[in-house]
Each structure stands twice: as C-alpha cells, then as structure tokens.
Amino acid sequence: GAGVSQSPRYKVAKRGQDVALRCDPISGHVSLFWYQQALGQGPEFLTYFQNEAQLDKSGLPSDRFFAERPEGSVSTLKIQRTQQEDSAVYLCASSLAGLSYNEQFFGPGTRLTVL
Amino acid sequence: QKEVEQDPGPLSVPEGAIVSLNCTYSNSAFQYFMWYRQYSRKGPELLMYTYSSGNKEDGRFTAQVDKSSKYISLFIRDSQPSDSATYLCAMRAYSGGGADGLTFGKGTHLIIQP
Q: CB–CB of B112/B80 below 8 Å?
C-alpha cells in the first residue's frame, strides 16, 4: 500500500504570493498532522485533524496559514501572502485514531522557497 | 529554553562503533518517547517508541527513557554507513482525547565512516 504522499515536492514562490500544499494520507488513517521543518531544525507541529474536524491549530504561526480537510481524507495547507520566513519543508503525517499511541507516518514533504 | 534539547552534531564515528544519541526535556507531562531517522530530502521514519520509563531493544537499536532525569537515549550497536542520517527524538503527552502533535528535538546529524 502507498504511504503518505505530498505535492508538489518543491515549490518556489515570490514574496506575497499564495501557495497551496496537498497531502494524501494513508487510506483509513483518521488523524492527519502538518509540521513545519526549517533548515537544520526538527519538525514543529502546526495543526491536527481528526477526520474533517480541525481539533488543534495552536501551532499555526499566523493567520496567513490555513488548513482544511473537508472530506476527512486529503488535506490542503494554504499560506497566504508568503514571506521569506515561510521558507521551510512542510511535512504531513497520518495515523490511526485511538486513545493509545499510534505511529505517525510521514510523507516526503514539500520544500517551499520564498524569494 | 526549548521543551526538547538535542545536540545537532555532527557526530562522526567509525564503522562498527557503538553510537549514543540523547535528548533532554523539560515537560514532565511527556509520556511517549520516539526516535525517528531522517535521510536527506526524505520524511522522518519511526525507529523506536517507548511508553513511560524503561528500556526497549530492537535489533541493533536500544532506546532508554529516564523520566526522573528527563533524559532519553538511543544506542546503535555495530554501526553501519547506512545508519548515516539525522536522528530526531520526539515526544508527546497523553491527552486522553485522541492523537496529539509531536514535539521534536533539533536532530543529531550522524556520520558513520567506512
């Protein structure tokens, strides 16, 4: 079975442009996460969905960042009016639901460069 | 001070050596502790996870958690050049309401010299 896929793999945007990053989770995975990984840093949590409900968006750095998962499967992370500090790798992860630990499976990421 | 501290390295060791990687943390609510391996331009992949304190062994890898000291370790025995990668520690609390985002360390860049 396929793992988590993300598209595009690379995105170059001019400062001020809007971008949309897509995540296709593993089929049947209820939970979906977005992380931001700056160069030389570990991933930082952005937001979390359980099915279509966005249960935690505490990590979104500003109101320019918006995520959605309207049908509980594919998710899109949108960044409006991109800034240079938005340059990073954006990672998506998915997992089964449950109260106990469930492994988060990561996609390869989208590398965003803002010029 | 960040919640999770990890020395970024690089850490360079000869092939066959025992590697010791570690992280310290400050949030006493963390209960799940994970080690991920990340190759260049790839997503992180889970190596080991431990719930609460104790040791866990899987092949050449051993994970240790000492909650009293807020210190976790990953040991790699008989290291191979293919182990060269960035190793990320990650943690989360138990919320009781479902999954939670992970808190990661900065990652340690490990180089195994042939």
A: yes
Q: Identify all chain B residues contacting A103, using CB atoms and an 8 Å cutoff.
A: 46, 49
Nearest CA to A25 out of A58, A74, A72, A65 is that of A74
Tell me which chain B residue has its CA closest to the CA of residue A10.
Answer: B41
In chain A the beta strands, taken as DSSP E runs, fall at 5-7, 10-13, 19-24, 31-37, 44-50, 53-56, 65-68, 75-79, 88-95, 105-106, 110-114
Identify residue B37 by its one-letter amino acid code: R
Write the residue in A45, A55, A109 that is nearest to B102 by C-beta.
Answer: A45
DSSP class of residue A104 equals P
Query: How far, in Å, CA of B76 to CA of B56, rounded?
Result: 12
Per-residue pLDDT tens digits for B24-80: 999 998 999 999 999 999 999 999 999 888 899 999 999 999 999 999 999 999 999
